[in-house]
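Internal QA ticket QA-208
Title: Verify multi-chain structure generation after dependency bump
Assignee: T.L.

Test input:
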Amino acid sequence: EAGVAQSPRYKIIEKRQSVAFWCNPISGHATLYWYQQILGQGPKLLIQFQNNGVVDDSQLPKDRFSAERLKGVDSTLKIQPAKLEDSAVYLCASSLVGGGGNSPLHFGNGTRLTVT
Amino acid sequence: AQSVAQPEDQVNVAEGNPLTVKCTYSVSGNPYLFWYVQYPNRGLQFLLKYITGDNLVKGSYGFEAEFNKSQTSFHLKKPSALVSDSALYFCALLTDSWGKLQFGAGTQVVVTP
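Actual output:
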């Protein structure tokens, strides 16, 4: 079984620039998550999709972050404009169905973003 | 409010010795609890989960976890640690029916030869 694919692995940008991350979940996984992991902290959920619909985006800074999953498969996360505090690892995860009790999350290797 | 805490930033253990990584939680109702491990420059990998049933849960790579409702704890254990177990370990709490997980801050495990 192929895992969750993310690209790029690393990205360095200057503040106020824009950046986009891409995620391809495991085939057949209906639920897709984007997490932000700041150094020294646990991952924090930014947005959760069920197929192509948003389930939870309560912690997404919507003035600068956006995400989409148009066909219910791949997803992109965009930051525009970036701030220094956005430096973090952005993790994509997927699961068969929502409700992690029955379906553990499978994580990609993440994109490490550095904003200078 | 629901929360999960990992009171230790780092745990040091010699290879072959037992390993324990602590996790406590606060939730109204029955908790669904998870342990994940993260190796350098990698995503998180699922180790085990507690949903209901036996308080001792067995997972991947020889790890197990003990659920204790009276102490609101879910400590991760391994009887004999390996150098390859050195990694960052996260405890997580399921916070809604859609699968949202709240992660602890993580505990760095260092196993020395």
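Spot checks passed. The mean pLDDT of chain B is 94.
Status: verified.
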